[in-house]
């Protein structure tokens, strides 16, 4: 087991054939994963796709049914206890003590991590300033706003300066401004050399990641930078401009060349799986008596997500 800090470009997480089954239900299905130092690696996927289960296995909190895991040189689950001292873990649910003050929560965590009193005080003072909580030090944690609780949880997760930070949908319960501030804090950590693995179902957050893994039904169905994934989109995104986009949407429902569609303002966005999709969509709308202009448009991550996670309605259920 290695105790040295990972160097630039070095693998921090390596998983091969990672699987987790709960009885007849397969939550994670033979997943291969590589994450390098100082990456902001995003797990994108719908609820129930296996994101949380994967993160818990990587942390050593959940024993895999099958496969190999190496995190920061530690082999999991054998070295799970040693790994806990070198990682930070933050969930979407506030997990600190609501009946303690902000300062007391961080002091308790410092004791758990074995920080010396003088070093603990300096580190807590630093984090309270960095995460705009200095004036809340004596406030009960349970009375904080959602954004303030999130910042306190992040301060607690990085108190011991972990080399790897794993965050499981950390912004699901906060407002857009707090989400932006939170992501600014994450990039500060990455710039300082911390590796981050963040699960999310927000497309705008996924676009911020340096690399993305898209999970579906427990499988890794896409892996790459947001730019690479959009450039490699197998379908063709189209923009339909017409006076009645809802009518156009109904007319296109069920066509085999239409993978997905959504109304965006006064327009209809269509993802076509055919090379000549623009011509087919335009012809079908014309036959339906709908006057419309159909143009190619730039791909976005939602197009990628829809394309790689599209499967038959009879697909097996996944784990929560």
From TrEMBL:
UniProt domain ABC transporter: residue ranges: 13-242
A single MF term (Gene Ontology): ATP binding
Pfam family, any one: ABC_tran
Keywords: ATP-binding, Nucleotide-binding
PANTHER family: ABC TRANSPORTER G FAMILY MEMBER 20 ISOFORM X1, ATP-BINDING CASSETTE, SUB-FAMILY H, MEMBER 1
Protein name: ABC transporter ATP-binding protein
Originating organism: Zestomonas insulae
């Amino acid at each position: 087991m290695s105790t040295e800090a990972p160097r630039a470009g070095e693998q921090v997480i390596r998983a091969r054939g990672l699987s987790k089954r709960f009885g007849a239900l397969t939550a994670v299905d033979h997943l291969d994963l590589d994450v390098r130092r100082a990456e902001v690696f995003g797990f994108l996927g719908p609820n129930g796709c296996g994101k949380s289960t994967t993160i818990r296995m990587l942390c050593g909190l959940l024993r895999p049914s099958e496969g190999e895991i190496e995190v920061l040189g530690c082999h999991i689950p054998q070295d799970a206890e040693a790994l806990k001292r070198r990682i930070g873990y933050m969930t979407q649910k506030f997990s600190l003590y609501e009946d303690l003050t902000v300062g007391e929560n961080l002091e308790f965590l410092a004791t758990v991590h074995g920080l010396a009193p003088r070093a603990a005080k300096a580190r807590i003072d630093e984090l309270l300033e960095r995460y705009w909580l200095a004036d809340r030090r004596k406030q009960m944690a349970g009375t904080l706003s959602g954004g303030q609780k999130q910042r306190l949880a992040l301060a607690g997760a990085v108190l011991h300066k972990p080399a790897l930070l794993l965050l499981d949908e950390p912004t699901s319960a906060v407002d857009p401004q707090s989400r932006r501030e939170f992501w600014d804090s994450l990039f500060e950590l990455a710039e300082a050399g911390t590796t981050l693995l963040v699960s999310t179902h927000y497309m705008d957050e996924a676009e911020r990641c340096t690399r993305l893994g898209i999970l579906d039904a427990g499988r890794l169905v896409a892996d790459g930078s947001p730019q690479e994934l959009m450039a490699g989109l197998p379908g063709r995104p189209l923009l339909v401009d017409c006076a009645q986009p809802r009518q156009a949407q109904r007319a296109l429902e069920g066509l085999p060349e239409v993978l997905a569609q959504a109304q965006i303002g006064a327009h209809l966005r269509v993802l076509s799986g055919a090379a000549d999709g623009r011509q087919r969509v335009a012809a079908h709308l014309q036959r339906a008596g709908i006057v419309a202009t159909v143009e190619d448009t730039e791909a976005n991550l939602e197009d990628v997500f829809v394309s790689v996670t599209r499967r038959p309605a009879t697909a097996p259920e996944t784990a929560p």
